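User: Assemble these into one structure.

Assistant: Restating your components, then the assembled model:
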Amino acid sequence: MKLKVRNLDKISILDSSGDVDLYSSPRLREALLAEIQPGGPSVLVNMSEVAYIDSSGIATLVEGLQLSRQTKTRFGLFGLRPNARSVLELARLHKVFTIFENETEALEKIASIQPFSGI
Amino acid sequence: MRIAIGSEPRLLNILRSVVRFRAQEAGFPDNEVECLAMAIDEAAANIIRHTYGGRSDDLLALEVRGYQDRLEFILEDWGPKVCENQIRPRPLDELRPGGLGTLFIASFVDECSYDPEFKHGNRLKLVKYLSRKVPSCDEA
């Protein structure tokens, strides 16, 4: 997995690519925990180049979501490939995450979503 | 075909590649190939995380047996015996990290069983039939 963080105006985008699995998901976790901070920017995960994601990768995203709720930070995903979307649906998580089709939509709409106040 | 790898997470992509190759060769459609790769990956990840407790100096082996109507994937480890009745997916209405690997395995293969005769660790057999209609990634 490759991971790059782009810091835009009040938005951080984590561009991940390749396989997000048991080996690589700790790096994604570390980046999410660093970016999701109280009073920090909105955080988006770009998954358009993620070819494979396993349960540890999904667990990492769930952890990011939980932290975003605790810190009242806006958090979303965009660019999911069909296989990633399918496993989220199978785990019934597709309605729990805020998911945008692409970066353009994510940048347009992220500011309008309500940060969660808690689980 | 049988391969053995060290219990290192970075090596799981080798298992996925083997599974994809054999599943494609056997004639599974692309979506089921990916589901099978994920099922075996999750099972192997469980061995590394739970059976071996994250240690990277152990071994696990994958054997793929091809038949006319199915593929069988045999995963062996040499760790402590797994308590089958403690393996269950987490309730899906709980929002917490973890507990999804078992769900994916159960969803993507037709049969899943441990060999009680295997004395030196655990031997897990995952079976996927070629023509049987089962939930797949895209249908789930």
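The mean pLDDT of chain A is 94.
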